[in-house]
User: Fold this.
Amino acid sequence: MLATYNTNRLVLNVLSPSKAGLVLNFYIKNKDFLEPHEPKRARLFYTYEFQRANLACEYNTFIKQTNIRYWISLNTNPDKIIGSVCFSNILRGAFCSCMAGYKLGKEYCGNGYMYETLYTLIPVICKDLSIHRIEAMVMPGNTPSISLLNRLHFTEEGYLRSFAQINGVWEDHILYSYINPGFN
Assistant:
């Protein structure tokens, strides 16, 4: 598995801790847009030191292939983060599965960037990590994300009551899954 992939419009990178400033800028710029849809942040989340330490952890989990986050940039401006995709809870053995989570900055939504990212990374994750099943959980009102998952051939599997604490409130989610058609 590579640390960088390129698409027609995007650069997808696993970042080293030296790029903490880029990640911090992304989070600060998109704070009001992202916070209502994410878990409450630690007090120090919006600091360079926190983001540097977090990128160090992410880089180590990439090496171990237990959690993989790709940061998204436009290929015309590779030093500006516009979003990320994370494949987490990577299970081996009888499960061969993982969870997918993703986010984009507000000004980049609706341009097909996340579809382009996931369309590129899903086959890589499935092949290189021998993944049979990818799960994604979406809040019921998030119609853009539901449309994205449907376009990527995820299947709705069920309703998860009080599944995750989002911005301090326990929220219901819908479980979607993608089954790797090439898995043996």
